[in-house]
Amino acid sequence: MNMKPSILYFLTVLLLAACIKTEPMIPTPTLLPPTETPIPSKTPLPTETPIPSETPLPTITPEGDIGSTWLRPKDGMAMVYVPKGAFTMGSNLGESDEQPVHDVYLDAFWIDQTEVTFTMYASFAPSRSGQYPVQNVTWEEASAYCSWVGSRLPTEAEWEKSARSPDERTYPWGNQNPAGDLVNFADVKSHLSWGDVNVNDGYENVAPVGSYPAGASMYGALDMAGNLAEWVNDWYDETYYNTSPLDNPTGPVEGFFRALRGGSWYGNADSVRTADRSWYIPEGGTDYVGFRCAQNTVMP
Description:
Blueprint lengths: L6 H13 L49 E3 L6 E5 L2 E5 L12 E5 L2 E4 L5 H5 L16 H10 L7 H9 L64 E7 L22 E4 L15 E4 L8 E3 L2 E2 L5
């Protein structure tokens, strides 16, 4: 039997195929990943324009040379520079309150070249004028004046370093005994029973400031010996050196008397030594006591 399909069969299949309607194929859409809608960022707030701070007034950090001077505007006082460093404080030649001898370190500072004069003090309180050192002022008055001019009273340690220098001088000028061109102290003209009749310093009592330039200390401070004894900031304690700090000592926290340094026209040669210590009631003043000021920094 012939199994091949006949021509009629193929024609029939073709006719049937032509009658079947084919649907066109719809392409499947490509799915894209959803994009995030951007969240609008906050508009930044305007930054405040910083207000410039005031430019601080310049100061001179006391790192100068020995011999540097500066005029204090308030009263015209010349101040001399004392550099930082250690010095030997106290003496085995004097009273027990000068012992034990010990080394002290001080930061740099400035100190008045002379004692404050009557003319300078008259701008602060009623006073006569003149280039003599002001007398009969209490410790409170001296401290108030120093504050008024932008300074302070020196500490005992500052005072002694200014007078003594690091080479342990007995007197501001050195180790030579007091002489008439070096210091004003109890001499033949003072007519005091303890006066040195072999010395004539030219004055019966107090002298104008700066009258003895040959007696200046290493730093240029004048009249650190004699003329007038000087108030310092410390309370007086005869045993203070036993417990004194080694760095920048400021004295006892309390006491009954304030310390005096330097001796005066009324004192003998021993009292004008750089290590000699004395005292007086802070509420009192006398004709052999005056003062000078000090400060840590100065304005240019």
